[in-house]
Design a protein that fits this description.
The complex is a heterodimer of chains A (about 220) and B (about 280). With about 220 residues, chain A is mainly alpha-helical. In chain A, about 80% of the residues lie in helices and about 0% in strands. Chain A is built from 9 helices and no strands. The longest helix of chain A is centred in the middle third of the chain and has 34 residues. Chain B has 11 helices and 14 strands. Chain B is an alpha/beta fold and about 280 residues long. Chain B has 2 domains: about 200 residues, 3-Layer(aba) Sandwich (Rossmann fold); about 60 residues, no CATH class. In chain B, about 35% of the residues lie in helices and about 30% in strands. Chain B is elongated and about 70 Å long. The interface between A and B is medium-sized, with 20 and 27 residues.
Chain lengths: ~220, ~280
């Protein structure tokens, strides 16, 4: 598996995609913005480009001419996207801290805090489960899987943003500055991380079942 | 020892059936896999490599392929037709990735082969001629000591000089008596130069899988007058009529029944053409 991951990072995923979160995350510095959009650039720019490149480079056939197990192939694909998502979140957190330090004001939409990043993890988890399960039905068609992942992730983020605006009790938990609220936000971060890994694990198990039956 | 043993491999597509394909290849030989376009050559090779789901079984090095895929692929080289991978990347980058997958990768052998084939590791795959690409693929296969090398249409698109060079290389590879090469082609003159065995597939079915000599012995191209055609028709695989009469392909065993017919040894092309005609 680690050989396949090496292949992903050395050969398949262009270094440009590691550069994107570095630049895009600067959008966290825009005052009063819908910050979930910053995380979404990942599946607007990186996912379609990376998966389009897999097709044009015949990555699937290239991989399976070598001693590669089908489940390792799925695992390497999921882990490499996961690493990129972590890059978006970690670099995003740095810029978010900068935002807080610079402006000292709350955001009109959801604030940047631990809960924001917990929900960010869930957002990526939801995208991944929709994307991978649909993608590994064909292992080449990435258009519809990307759209499905987008629809679910955007609906989820919209739901959160609207709740923050219209439901005071939700806003109190997600944006409150009391000690209890801050504890809740930390809990949401850790819950988000757990849900993220859980969703990816389910995506992996279901994807393997679909991929095993596929003619390459 | 049988390096490759394909048993009743079957694959059903909506409009094509690969029908109980069986053949085997011993160590130290070159086998040509022939058939017209769409006969099932690539499908068979993909089934052997377990790239497509199929019925039947494939044994390589005496082991069931599906159960021991990882281990068996360590000792195999495989090249698929015109499919190109990461063609804007340098040879050295591709090798850096590929070699990690093989536990018995032999760096000195790799370096030696690069020199021998004049492959520049700084060159991109796209900059290589078709012949050089095949040589690079063979270099990768030989650097992990592949004992079974399977190539899909390696000679198509090569000029006669490059083709001849490649066929000589195949012969050199099997000289140790331990390595075997299976390659598909529809350029039959390639096989006349180097193949020990021929497996002939037509419309998804194996027609013959035998030594080159036996294959040529078992068919005759016969010709006779239009009158004689009716009499011999039932023993002909297929025939073509012309203003002098007919020409047809017949199994050698039937030829002695018809004393009046002229018969000559067919070429591999003739065998392929008449079988394809019979299927129409």
């Amino acid at each position: 598996m680690k050989n396949l991951l090496y292949k992903e990072l050395k050969l398949s995923i262009h270094p440009f995609h590691w550069f994107v979160p570095l630049v895009i995350s600067a959008l966290f510095l825009i005052p009063n913005w819908v910050f979930f959009v910053v995380l979404m650039y990942f599946f607007w720019i990186s996912v379609p480009n990376i998966y389009g490149a897999y097709n044009s480079q015949n990555d699937l056939t290239f991989s399976f001419l070598m001693p590669v197990k089908k489940n390792d192939y799925v695992k390497a694909k999921i882990i490499s996207l996961l690493l990129l998502e972590l890059a978006y979140l970690v670099i995003g957190a740095v810029y978010a801290t900068l935002n807080i330090v610079l402006y000292h004001t709350s955001n009109f939409m959801m604030d940047l805090n631990f809960a924001f990043f917990g929900i960010g993890f869930i957002l990526y988890g939801l995208f991944n489960i929709m994307f991978f399960i649909k993608y590994f039905k064909t292992a080449y068609n990435y258009g519809l899987p990307t759209i499905l992942g987008n629809v679910v992730a955007i609906l989820f983020a919209t739901g959160i943003e609207l709740s923050v605006i219209f439901i005071p009790s939700v806003a109190n938990i997600l944006e409150g500055s009391s000690a209890a609220s801050r504890l809740w936000q930390l809990v949401i971060l850790f819950a988000g991380i757990i849900i993220f890994f859980l969703l990816n694990f389910i995506a992996y198990r279901v994807s393997i079942k679909k991929f095993e039956r596929l003619d390459l | 020892m049988k390096l490759l043993n394909v048993k009743e491999v079957t694959k059903q597509y909506p409009k094509f059936l690969l029908d109980k394909v069986s053949f085997s290849l011993d160590e130290g030989y070159i086998m040509g896999f022939i058939g017209s376009n769409g006969a099932g050559k690539t499908t068979t090779l993909k089934a052997i490599m377990n790239l497509i789901m199929h019925d039947g079984s494939v044994e390589i090095f005496g082991q069931n392929f599906i159960d021991n895929e990882h281990e068996i692929k360590q000792k195999m080289g495989f090249m698929l037709g015109d499919t190109e991978f990461y063609k804007k990347r340098k040879i050295k980058t591709i090798t850096e990735v590929v070699k990690r997958f093989y536990s018995n990768w032999d760096e000195p052998v790799y370096k030696e082969l690069l020199n021998r084939f004049a492959l520049d590791p700084e060159k991109m795959i796209d900059e290589l001629s078709k012949g050089m690409k095949i040589k690079y693929n063979l270099t990768l296969a030989l650097s992990h000591h592949a004992k079974l090398i399977i190539l899909d249409e390696p000679t198509s698109g090569l000029d006669p000089v490059a083709r001849d060079g490649l066929l000589e290389l195949f012969q050199e590879l099997v000289e140790d008596g331990l390595t075997s090469v299976l390659f598909s082609t529809h350029i039959t003159s390639d096989l006349e130069k180097c193949a020990d065995y021929i497996t002939f597939i037509n419309e998804g079915k194996i027609v013959e899988s035998t030594s080159m000599v036996d294959l040529m012995e078992s068919y005759r191209l016969v010709n006779g007058s239009a009158k004689e055609l009716n009499e011999v028709k039932r023993n002909l695989i297929a025939h073509k009529t012309n203003s002098f009469g007919f020409t047809g392909l017949m199994k050698t065993e039937f030829v002695s029944k018809y004393a009046n017919l002229n018969s000559v040894e067919p070429s591999l092309d003739d065998i392929m053409i008449y079988y394809a005609k019979a299927g129409r």
